[in-house]
Amino acid sequence: MRHISLWIAAALVVTTSACKKDSDSTPAPLEAKTVTDINANPADNGGFSMYFNLTTGTSVPATDSATNKWDIAFKTTTIKVNSGTSGPGTASAQLVTTGFDDLIDAPENGYATDGATGFAIPAGTGNGWYSYTGAAASGPQHAILPIAGKTIVVKTVNGKYAKIQIVSYYKGNPNVSTAEFADLAKRPLGGYYTIRYMVQADGSRKLK
Amino acid sequence: MLKQLYYIVPAMLCCYLTARAQQTEPDTTSRESLDEVVVTATRTPRSIKNVPVPVTVIGQDKIERMGALRLNEVLTEQVGLQIISDHGTGIQLQGLSSDYILILIDGEPVIGRTAGTLDLTRLAIGNIQRIEIVKGPSSSLYGSEAMGGVINIITKKIPAAYTGQVRARVRRYNTIDLTAEAARQNERWGWYLFVNRLSTNGYNTTDSISKAIPAYTAWTFNPKLQIKLSSKWELTLNTRFYLEEQKNNLAVAEGNGLHLLKDRTRNTDLNIAPVLTFKPNNDNRLQVRNYITAYHTKTFIDYQPENTPYDESYFNQQFYRTEAQYDHSFSEAHTSTIGAGNIIEAVEATRYDNNNKLTQQYIFGQHQWMPSKQFNLVAGFRYDRHNQYRDRISPKLSLRWNVNRRLSIQASAGGGYKAPDFRQMLLNFTNPVAGYSVFGTSVVGAGISRLQAEGQISSLYLDPATIQNIKAESSIAFNTSVLYTPANRLTVQLNVFRNNISDLIDTRPIALKTNGQNVFSYFNYNKVFTQGIEFQSSYSLPFGLQVSAAYQYLDAKDATVWDNIKAGNVYYRDASNVDRKVKRQDYGGLYNRSKHSGNIKLLYDDTRFNYNVSLRGIYRGKFGYGGDVNSNAILDDPAEYADGYTVWNLSAQKFFNKITVEAGVNNLFKATNTYDPLLAGRQWYVGAALRFVKNTRQQTSK
Lengths: 208, 702
What we know:
The structure holds 2 protein chains of 2 kinds.
Chain A (H helix, E strand, L loop, with lengths): L1 H24 L7 E7 L10 E4 L4 E3 L11 E4 L2 E4 L10 E6 L32 E3 L11 E3 L3 E6 L5 E10 L8 H4 L7 E11 L8
Antiparallel strand pairs in A: 1-11, 2-3, 2-4, 4-5, 6-9, 7-8, 9-10, 10-11
Chain B lengths: L1 H20 L15 E2 L7 E2 L7 E5 H7 L4 H5 L5 E5 L3 E5 L7 E5 L2 E2 L3 E2 L2 E2 L9 E8 L3 H4 L6 E7 L7 E9 L3 E11 L3 E12 L14 E14 L4 E22 L2 E25 L2 E20 L5 E21 L4 E16 L6 E14 L5 E12 L5 E13 L2 E12 L3 H5 L1 E3 L6 E3 L4 H10 L3 E4 L12 E15 L2 E24 L4 E23 L4 E14 H8 L4 E3 L5 E3 L14 E11 L4 E10 L2 E2 L16 E2 L2 E11 L3 E8 L16 E9 L11
């Protein structure tokens, strides 16, 4: 009996150390950052979109909209990328149906720029990243709710891969299942994005 | 046979015109009177023991002892049938919603659906002799909407003697139901007249401004006329007029608060069905049926207390059908049926362009073969062509094997279909607030051209010319049924069913407008399946007591979602905003379907003191109520289910010579459910009926 226990203990030591060795060999995991309350209401931005630089994690003034200083821009429910009809840059993007954490590698192909045939990140309810509840029979009405498992993959203006999860469209990232949220009079303001994102600085498609 | 038709059709028209000129004259239909004969399964009168698909028959005595007022109250007590409130009180049959269920009155379709739901509260039941229910597709005989099943209301046949009845029922919520009927048959002709008035205050299930069931008053008239032109020719004219006026309160969020609105709706329904039957002998029968039906609904919504208009909408539908059917028996073993028909349909509504005319032609054929008493086989098909969607063939094959006196097996495979609805073909709608547009497939080309000319289109996702003609939604279904009678007083029936439905129609964006919104049209792209097991058992104890139990297990899933879940492409958002994959076992399938449902019934008949009592418990298991709490628009979270419930109904009837008195309580234990507005509180009722001619007493019996 004692012998067996010893063997098990030995085996455990070996396995644990093996695991350690494995994880040591991979690069340090990237960190997901969260930014709250990106105000995408043009009325608050002088009629412009809210421009955002993923590498620095900060917003960019509208006066720089014709530059390479931004990657993506938010204007109510529309998300633009700095390219084609939206800006002078070479950024591109696509919307994939993989959860943020499950998306380990950015896709190799499939990126689009903003153009005459539409935005790289499709707009409209049920078509892109959100669904509009309308006069739903139950749950909050007339709400913009992100669709679970939709992740935006962006190739930034400087050619780096990034992934973005839209967490919330409402100020303060509220719990949308409460009676307070369902009450249109008490619901926090819309057009305030909370996003979770990750940028791979080394130029590879690894996003973990 | 064609030659005969040439004579018959003008003759029919004449008869129709005459009949119309004398609408006050009542009429009738001749119907097979034997309890065991059913007509819905094969479109020919056949013994229920010799039809290869299971037919549920609900007889007049069963209907009367329930104290029911409208068709929904009768159907809700049947296994496999679920009443669902969605733009009206509709039926769900083996998991398929009201859109896919055909409701017939004496073989003619009832029209007037709102968002696919045919409101069963429009159908009075005092004139019903029996209801036949065929589950599974019967499109090979009946065409569109017979995908999930057919519910055929057979109205009363005209009794031999002069007879009549008046009946009154009073129920909670100031519900008053008054019925009068009379009939007479002579050697050459007979008539029947049925009049019903139902009024109710309606009720609230929650503390809200709008009532779950609005206050309404409805009138039903059903005059019938039957003329034996000769020993071979018979003409019947079945007509029905329905008028309903309802009132409700609504509220709309405007400015700082809610503004009260008053809703007034008027529904009218008209059916005229002259049928000419030529039966030279027992081996040949030719029927020419004309059917004219119209449904109108008009709604006014006004601000209160100002009484100024908020909204006004209407929907008018007319449906004309001419159909001929010829049955020929070659021998005891072989019977063939062939038929052809033409349908002209017109629809007008607030959101449609005017003058929409739909035309449809069809032929159907069926052969019944009984090689022996033990076996019988029915094969049939129907071909439909329509001016708005693609042609369609619906086949069906079914067989029955009476293994021995106690055991029989039925099996069938068939195709069903449902035509695209008016909205999917004809809608021309731009949301005035949000600015998106939706076009039906018949008007999308013109709609896009117009928007382009107005400079409203920013880009096209696809060329409108490539939008293919829409197809009907279609299904392939398999049904197997075993009927076993282990003892004379005991019957057990087991049904297994599977429906694969494809080409479900839904909206997809087709263009981007300059205002940033999309233009939508309709496409065939989705698939669902339903499968399940239905079990029914009935045991007649001595002393007039009958006990029955029934249960349905149902699995109804969106096949596209199910495949995506299996492929790991469907996520939910957890409480900490992390997107996680939906596990297979968490997918609950389609909303509003209960995996488990069933009923228990105790019926007691006392022949000594002439009374009966019945107690019925109707169970509906938990179901997805349509809400989404985890951002994936599918049913997968426990919080997305509504609780199950059981409704108990108790009723009793006592018969005196010409008088029946009755009383009962519906929803005895006050079952409630936030997501089922049709569950009223406990409702008592009392009633009395007086027959004014003896010897036609329709007393309860098994």
